[in-house]
Amino acid sequence: MPFLFALDRGRRTAKSAAAVLLKWAGCRPGVVFEMDNQCVCGAGALPAGEAAMSKAAVRDYFDRLAPGWDAELVADSKKIHAILDAAGVKPGARVLDVACGTGVLFPFYLQRGVAGVLAVDLSPAMAAIARSKATGPIRVVCDDVEEMRGTGEYDCCVVYNAFPHFPDPERLIGGLAAWLRPGGRLTVAHGMSVEQLNAHHAGSAAKVSRGMLPAPELAERFRRWFRVDVVVSDGEKYIVSGVLKTDAGAGEAP
Ligand SMILES: C[S@@+](CC[C@H](N)C(=O)[O-])C[C@H]1O[C@@H](n2cnc3c(N)ncnc32)[C@H](O)[C@@H]1O
């Protein structure tokens, strides 16, 4: 497992340089140790390939998986309903489905009588399957959601089973804030525990994923833009959800 290091003669400088690296890499504080009159601060271990995760690699990876995705998928309705309850998806809601994949959540949105869904996915193959299932108020766009301009009109923004595939948590959270109306809600959720998720991403997905932050840490990252009122991390699901602050400066880079 590779490490990031900050190297300086001063202990304090090495530590603050490492803090910058930590923020960039989204990993945990490391230890400071001295070596040949230099202070070295390790900025945490990253699974191989994580620092180099590129959008092209993510897109190609999911393009390859798309044809078999639905056959592999186990959609647990009870968990999904718990997540959509926390996400505030209710009749009349306008929903931004971030990284919709093949559209696993579409039947649930329709069941809940939403007014509109903009479903975005980076992978053309995933988006094509999602589009083939989009009915009623659901519209599918194939794009990098981080390169799209937020419209400030959505009630709910849902990132389901996709957060580890975004390279920079704060960039994503700040960008998604710009899609929400005042009082709108952002939810990041997974239908498995952090441990299961990280184990799931340890194999071939390591080069297109980063380690999932523990829920309280993700909640901290939300707080610049959101008032967090849901933090769930148990043996079968993970949910962090919050309401957009009125003075949030949505869309600002962190
Ligand atoms: C693990 S899949 C989950 C898909 C779906 N939410 C599900 O639960 O079946 C992650 C998805 O994130 C999409 N994705 C990754 N980065 C993205 C980005 N920058 N913009 C939009 N979609 C992205 C991938 O193409 C992929 O379809």
Structure keywords:
single chain, 254 residues, alpha/beta, Rossmann fold, three-stranded antiparallel beta sheet, binds S-adenosylmethionine
Overall residue-averaged pLDDT value:
85
Q: Which descriptor suits the 3D outline?
A: globular
Order of helices and strands: EHEEHHEHEHEEHEHHEE
End-to-end separation: 28 Å
Spatial order of the strands forming the largest sheet: 6-5-4-7-8-10-9
Mind telling me the CATH superfamily name of the largest domain?
A: Vaccinia Virus protein VP39
The percent range for strand residues is 25-35%
Report the helical percentage: 25-40%
Structural Rg: 19 Å
With helices defined by DSSP (H or I, 4 residues minimum), what is the helix count? 8
CATH fold-level label of the largest domain: Rossmann fold
Bound molecules: S-adenosylmethionine
Number of domains: 2
Class by helix and strand content? Answer: alpha/beta
Major pleated sheet: 7 strands, mixed
CATH class of the largest domain: Alpha Beta
CATH architecture of the largest domain: 3-Layer(aba) Sandwich
Poorly predicted ranges (pLDDT <50, ≥5 residues)? Answer: 22-34, 43-50
**Quantity of strands, as a count:** 10
